[in-house]
């Protein structure tokens, strides 16, 4: 794996999982990877979904960076490696990345829904090896019902999981109802992520929403979400050298 080595502590593992397809798992995963990388952390993705959308995003990002370089554009964008593995091999694949020195953050993207048979033991294996689990959910009653049932079954009593309302219209009756319904089954993240075009436009170039070069497009809520999560998982400080030296000064 082509990852630079510079730290000896255990990486923080953030697992993205949800009982419903299209809930925003990969969107969350790629934006968390981009935010962590922008803060100077060495972040690596693990894509366990056979659609490999997170890996595709990382490949497109490589192309964007290469194109910028060949056009002579200045950029501080960094490549973000994403490993892929079959879901059934997810625990071993996660361990392989954990064993690589110098990684600060691993974001694991998973396929949707309940897994049965041999795959049933994978999610418990992943959750027990994760520092935090984010469960994206849309605001419709169908989505909240599905996520609620899944949460109760898969993550019951977990004190390291939070549901994130994703792609929502904030001031709407269904958003309030979703918040209430989800609060009955688990911890709900106080930051709600709206349905914004910038999630789609940045995806197209392998970027995160905080990396959009159109300042008015950036989603300030995702900045808050990342700061909130960073505190939850104890990723204190910002590893970007110029910010660190400003702190010392
Ligand atoms: N906050 C958002 N704003 C706009 N579009 C979003 C947002 N979150 C997710 N989407 C879109 O919803 C679709 C499904 O999201 P995705 O992350 O692929 O879901 P999953 O990985 O859970 O199947 C994608 O087209 C994605 O661009
Ligand atoms: Mg996905």
TrEMBL record:
Gene3D superfamilies on file: P-loop containing nucleotide triphosphate hydrolases
A Pfam family per the record: CbiA
Xref: InterPro entries: CobQ/CobB/MinD/ParA_Nub-bd_dom, DNA_Partitioning_ATPase, P-loop_NTPase
Transmembrane domains' residue ranges: none
CobQ/CobB/MinD/ParA nucleotide binding domain boundaries: 14-143
Regions annotated as coiled coil: none
Name of this protein: CobQ/CobB/MinD/ParA nucleotide binding domain-containing protein
Organism: Acetobacter pomorum
């Amino acid at each position: 794996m082509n990852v630079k080595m510079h730290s000896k502590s255990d990486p923080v593992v953030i697992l993205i999982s949800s009982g419903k397809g299209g809930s925003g798992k990969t969107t969350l995963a790629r934006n968390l990877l981009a935010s962590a990388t922008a803060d100077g952390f060495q972040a690596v993705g693990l894509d366990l979904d056979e659609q490999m959308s997170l890996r595709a995003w990382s490949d497109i990002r490589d192309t964007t960076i290469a194109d910028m370089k060949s056009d002579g554009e200045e950029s501080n964008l960094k490549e973000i490696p994403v490993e892929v593995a079959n879901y059934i091999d997810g625990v071993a694949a996660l361990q392989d990345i954990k064993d690589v020195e110098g990684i600060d953050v691993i974001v694991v993207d998973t396929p949707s829904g309940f897994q049965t048979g041999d795959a049933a033991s994978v999610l418990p294996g992943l959750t027990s090896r994760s520092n935090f689990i984010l469960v994206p959910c849309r605001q419709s009653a169908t989505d909240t019902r599905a996520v609620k049932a899944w949460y109760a079954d898969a993550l019951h009593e977990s004190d390291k999981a939070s549901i994130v309302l994703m792609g929502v219209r904030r001031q709407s009756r269904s958003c309030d109802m979703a918040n209430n319904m989800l609060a009955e089954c688990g911890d709900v993240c106080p930051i709600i992520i709206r349905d914004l075009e910038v999630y789609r436009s940045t995806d197209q170039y392998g970027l995160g929403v905080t990396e959009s070069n159109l300042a008015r497009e950036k989603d300030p809520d995702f900045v808050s979400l990342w700061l909130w999560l960073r505190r939850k998982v104890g990723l204190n400080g910002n590893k970007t050298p110029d910010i660190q030296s400003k702190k010392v000064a």
